[in-house]
Amino acid sequence: MSKYVERVLNETAARNGNEPEFLQAVDEVLTTLDPVLKKNPQYEANAILERMVEPERVIMFRVPWVDDKGVVRVNRGYRIQMNSAIGPYKGGLRFDPTVNLGVLKFLAFEQVFKNSLTTLPMGGGKGGSDFNPKQSPHTPGKRCSDAEVMRFCQSFMTELFRHIGPDTDVPAGDMNVGGREIGYLFGQYKRLANEWTGVLTGKGLSFGGSLIRPEATGYGDIYFAQNMLAMRGETFEGKKCVISGSGNVASFAAQKLMQLGAKVMTLSDRSGAIFCEEGITEKMLKDIMVLKNVKRGELADFAKKTKAVKFFAGQIADKIDAAFPCARQNELNGKDAEYLLKHGCTLVGEGANMPSTPDAIAAFLKAKIMYSPGKASNAGGVATSGLEMSQNSERLSWTAEEVDAKLKGIMKSIHDNAWEAAAKYGDKLREGRRRHGRPGRVLRKPSVCTCESV
């Protein structure tokens, strides 16, 4: 590690000592950059790393709202506007009790690089609240009603609207912020600003949304993995895959894997994980998506009614070809990584943001398997959000085939740029390193699939 990187890491830790997720994300990026910094001494002279780790603006505000019992509740809202060097801030909103300043700063930091990888003119930001739509404030075990979610979203946007705009900051959805929440947020923005603009992405098709947007992050993760496999002359046909999560990212990653001939054996949520030795069927997946997105139920309920699946207990399977962590940060630890490697896993494609812990990443790198960090492989969602912004600006609506073709092209471009960066800067860019080649042949140049390498 260079003295410059060490100094910036120490300064960042001193300033943000109570934000472990943010410090983890900064460490993962900065410790890979020695080869780049050596070839570009002007970066240190102009304090580029110091600028990278400091948000341009942090907005924090209270969100008062009224529940169905008439009780006033108060949550905390945030918007981290991290970097606007190449375009307006762009990044999702997350509603979850785990949301705090450090979590959102880590997500905004990662978003900067992810957005730059798409080649679209988008800066990086992130926001959200500690509001929990999955837990009613007055009835344990019940979810918030639609009316409660609406009132919360309207109060949240009443403050946020003054800080965003189509050429300033364009939020989207993230964890627990789907089509319902985006609709409420967009309606309140339109009411307050007295204008219709593409200020939010992930909108419904009837009011400016883009086809393929819900599918984009999951599809993009698999398209990226396809490019990795293609470098070895392989496809997904017949491969056994495990997926964590059951939201949009996980569900559509599973859908695309099935279309490509793979066998998807697992999905999970907070209630547990389902396992199907013969592979989850398309019919099962459709039922799960209705359960999660419409009925807002849990996989425990699905498992009770479906004989072909069972809850995860002990060993997943004798053979695992590929794993796709698509739930949340730090969900996959060193022991999980060892388990995957022991059972033959040769590909890990991150669909969530920073889902692998440092010891898990170290295990993947040591094993020299194909591994893509989320900063690269889950960029499909924000890429398609960028395409939605373009359609809104031009007052156009592209076909699903057009959007999907553009998404495939963007994910291939990200992969190829990472490969070229690895060739330029060499083997020392460790994060995301993997060796490609035909079976029995290892290429000398590793592919580094991280946004910091490009």
Brief characterization of the structure:
The protein is α/β, with parallel strands linked by helices and 454 residues long. Helix content is 43%, strand content 16%.
What's the CATH class of the largest domain, please?
Answer: Alpha Beta
Shape: globular
> Helicity, in percent?
40-55%
Low-pLDDT runs of 5+ residues are: 428-454
Strand element count: 14
Please give the order of strands in the largest beta sheet. 9-8-7-6-10-11-12
What does this structure look like?
The chain has 454 residues and is an alpha/beta fold. It has three domains: 54 residues, no CATH class; 141 residues, 3-Layer(aba) Sandwich (Rossmann fold); 162 residues, NAD(P)-binding Rossmann-like Domain (Rossmann fold, 3-Layer(aba) Sandwich), CATH 3.40.50. Helix content is 43%, strand content 16%. The chain has 17 helices and 14 strands. Strands 9-8-7-6-10-11-12 form a seven-stranded mixed β-sheet. A five-stranded mixed β-sheet has the order 1-2-4-3-5. The protein has a two-stranded antiparallel ribbon with strand order 13-14. α7 packs across α8 and α13 packs parallel to α14. The chain is globular and about 55 Å long. The two termini are 19 Å apart. The C terminus is likely disordered.
Keywords:
Rossmann fold, 3 domains, seven-stranded mixed β-sheet, five-stranded mixed β-sheet, 43% helix, 16% strand
